[in-house]
Amino acid sequence: MAGNPRIDDLMARFRERDRTALARLITIVENRAPEAVAVMEQLYPMAGRAHVVGITGPPGAGKSTLINLMIARLRAQGRSVAVLAIDPSSPFSGGAVLGDRVRMTAHYRDPGVYIRSISTRGSHGGLSRATREVVRVLDAFGHDTIIIETVGVGQTELDVMDLAETVIVVLVPESGDSVQVMKAGLNEIADLFVVNKADRPGADRMKAELEMSVHLRAGPGWRAPVILAQANAGVGIDELLAAIGKHREYLEMHRDQRRLGELRANELLEILTAEIEDRAMRALRNGAAPELLNAVRAGELNPYSAARRIIEDRKTLERLLSGEHRERN
Amino acid sequence: MAGNPRIDDLMARFRERDRTALARLITIVENRAPEAVAVMEQLYPMAGRAHVVGITGPPGAGKSTLINLMIARLRAQGRSVAVLAIDPSSPFSGGAVLGDRVRMTAHYRDPGVYIRSISTRGSHGGLSRATREVVRVLDAFGHDTIIIETVGVGQTELDVMDLAETVIVVLVPESGDSVQVMKAGLNEIADLFVVNKADRPGADRMKAELEMSVHLRAGPGWRAPVILAQANAGVGIDELLAAIGKHREYLEMHRDQRRLGELRANELLEILTAEIEDRAMRALRNGAAPELLNAVRAGELNPYSAARRIIEDRKTLERLLSGEHRERN
Fold first, then answer.
1. Domain check: are A63 and A109 in the same one?
2. Residue A84 backbone phi and psi in degrees, to 5
3. How far is B240 from chain A (nearest CA, A)?
4. Distance between CA atoms of residues A158 and A120, nearest Å
5. The complex's ipTM?
6. Same-domain check for residues B52 and B197
C-alpha cells in the first residue's frame, strides 16, 4: 500500500490540516478500506496528544446541551475540539439524537470544531475498533479535546466509553435511584458524575446517594466528584471543566506503564485479527477456495467442516492471507 | 479435537437428550472454547428441523407474558420449546428483563421447555454468532420451536432478529406512532405485528397505521398481519399462533435456494474468521511472536506496523494459525 498516490495526497493535505482530507481519511478508516492499516500506520505517531472525554447517560439527560457549552468554553480557551457522536440507531430512541445534533450546528462553521457521527448500525460489533481508530485520526489531526458522546442504551455503546480517558456520566433526578446506577455498572466507568436539571426535585438526594456509592466503592485513587448542573442555564459548567482538568492531571501523575503496555498489546491483537479477517473475507469472496465455497452453498458440506479444512490446509490458508488473489473491483 | 473423551461423552449424553449435557455444550459453544468448532461440526447435521421465532419490542410491551402463553399452547400441542432470552445488560433498562424471566419459571420444571439467556455484556459484537450457534445446539437437541427474545434497544439486539425465520414485533398503543416504527426499520424485519394491551386507547389507530405501512412497503410476497392482543387476559394468542403457522407454511412454499446458499456461504466466512481470530489470539498470548509483542508493549513499535509485519512474515503467520504453539492451561 506504500506509495499509493491517492493516499499520499490525502496524507499530505491532512498534515496541512485540510478538513476535507480529514473527512476522507475517517471514511477510509471507518469502512475498513484495504488502505486503512497503511493509513493508521502513518497516523499513529502523530497521535497521542488529545484529551479524550466520554459522555454518556440516558436519552434526555441533556448531554448535547452540556457538550455545546463545553465546546464554547474550550474554544474560548483557544483549544480545538472534535465531537464524535455514536448514533445508536435504536428503534425505540425516538430520534432525539438527531435533533440534538442539529442544535450543535452553531459550531459547524468554526474551523476549530469538528463534529462527526458514527452509526452503530452496520458496524456489527466493530464499533469499538472503528471508534478507536476515528478518535486516533482526530487526535493526529491536532484536536486538543475529543468528546465521544453515546446514549447509554446498550452494551455496545458502553464499550465505547472504555476508549475515553475521562468518562462523564450525566443523569437527571428522574433517572431513578442510585441503586440502578450501581447495578448498571455506571459507577465503575464514571470518572465524573453530572446531575443535570438540578433545579428539579430529588437532585440533592441523588447527589448524596452517588457520593455515598463513590465512597463505598473507592479504594485508593481517584474519587468521582458529583456535580450539580443546569446546562440550559449554564450552571455547573465551570465546575465540570475544572473537574475534567483535575482528572487529566491525576491521570498524568498516575500513568501506569504496565497497564499502558497491556492496552498496546491488546490493540495489536485487535488490529491483527481484524486485518486477517478482512483479508480472508475478501479472498474467499474473490474465489480463493471456490470448490469448498460451492459445496457449502449447495448444502453438501457442513460449514464447520469447510472452515476446519481451510485452516488445516496450509496452501489454501496462505492464499487467503497473502493478498495475492485477484481483487474484484 | 476428534477423540476428546470429555466431548465424546457429552455428545453421547446429548444424543440421549440429557439436559445437563445440553447445558454444558451450550456453555462450550457460547464461550468459544477450543472444542467449539468440533462440537458444532458434529451437531450441524442434527439441526435444521426447529422453527425459530424471534420476538422483539420495547421494554414493557408484554413480550414475556406472550411467550409464556405461547409456551403453554405449544406444549398443549405436544411441541417442545426452547426460549433464548438475549439479556441486554442495559444500564438504563431498569432490570425489567430479570423480573420477566422469573415469571417464566412456571415452565422450568417441564422437561419439554428449556429456557436460557445470553448476555450481551462481554460478547463484544460476537452476539449474533454466539446466538446462532446456541440456537443450532437447541435445534439439534430436538426442540420443535425456538423462541429468541430481545428487548429492541440497540442494533446488536436487532441483528439477532436476523437469525429468526419468523419475527414478531410486539408494540403497545403507547409505543408511539407508526412513523417511528418505520424510521426504526421495524417494518422491514417484522413478519407479524402484535399490538398488545389492545384495551388501551389508540390500539385501533395503531393497528390501522401499521396495516397501512405494511400495505405501502409491500411488493409481492408475505404481508405482515397486525394482531390485537391482551396477553394478560389470553386475548389474541390463538390468532398469533395461527399467523405464526401460516408464516412458516409460506416460508416452506417459497424456499429460496439461492438465498439459502448465500446464508450458508456467509456462515462459512463467519466461522472461518472467528476460528482464525481465536487461534491467532491464543497463539500471540502464548508467546508466538514475543519480540514484536514486547516492542509494542514498550511503545517502541507502532501496533499497526507490528500487525503488518506478522501478516507479511509467512513463518510467524503459520505459527499463529497452526495451533502448534504451546498452550497455556
1. yes
2. -115, 110
3. 23
4. 12
5. 0.76
6. yes
